Every structure is written in structure tokens, then in C-alpha cells.
Amino acid sequence: MLKILGRASSSNVMKVLWACEELGLPFERVDVGGAFAFKNAPDYLKLNPNGRVPTIDDNGFVLYESNVIVRYLASTYGDSRLLPSGRNRWIGEQWMDWQQTTLLAPMTTVFWQLVRTAPPSPPPPRRWRACGPSWTRT
Ligand SMILES: N[C@@H](CCC(=O)N[C@@H](CS)C(=O)NCC(=O)O)C(=O)O
Q: Is residue 17 located within the same domain as residue 67?
């Protein structure tokens, strides 16, 4: 069975879980990363030397990088779901790369300032200032 290594609170793991859901793909998930560190998967760094989540193990085939995992699952198990043909495919690819290369950095700043760092609500002006240009870019 497909094994997903990574804590469910990670947006990159969520992508993979969402893809599995869309594809109706059964899987087993192990909490790794964040507060869990690597204690549930002591050999994790041998699978993914980056020390990042997610990583999948699909019957011995190990893969990391969330977008690549989503593409792999769609291409292997999708039966053309999630991976349309022709130009529509490239529109999907465009948004996936945009998320990783353009959106991610400013989104991370905004996320840590306004969501992950325990908020007084609404966030004080200094938190908004810390977001700087990242706010307008997200
Ligand atoms: N480019 C990688 C980035 C993976 C990544 O940065 N994951 C974060 C969680 S969203 C992580 O592993 N953080 C360290 C941790 O959870 O311990 C991917 O898309 O899979």
C-alpha cells in the first residue's frame, strides 16, 4: 500500500492527501516532521536527505517533492483524472510551478506572521508590517 510520510498539518503533505482523496487511492500515513521530528521514522533521512516532508514509499518506490508526488500519483493512478490532456495539462502545470516558485515565499511570511505565530486577534500592526510586500504579493 502507498505510504505517505509526513505530518498532516503540513501544506505540502495536504497536497498529497488531497490528490489521494481525489483519486480514491488508499494509503497509510505516518506522522513525521514538525513536532514529531523523525521519531516515527528513524531512517527517514535515508529516504529524503532534505529532512522535509512529504515523502512517499509506493511499494518500494520512494519519492519526495510534493508537486512531483502529485504528478506521479495522477500519472500512475489517475486514469486521466487530475492530468488532463492537451493545453489544459499545461495550465495545471503552470499553477503548480507558480505555487512553488512565486507564491510560496511571500505566503510563508504571511502565514507565519498572521496564522502560525499564536495570534492576538486581530494581529497587531507590527505583524502586518512584518509581512511587508509579501502581503500584497499573496
Ligand atoms: N519543496 C518541498 C518542500 C517541503 C517542505 O518544506 N516541507 C515542510 C513542511 S510544509 C517541512 O518539511 N518542514 C519541516 C518539518 O515539518 O519538520 C516539497 O514541496 O515537498
A: yes
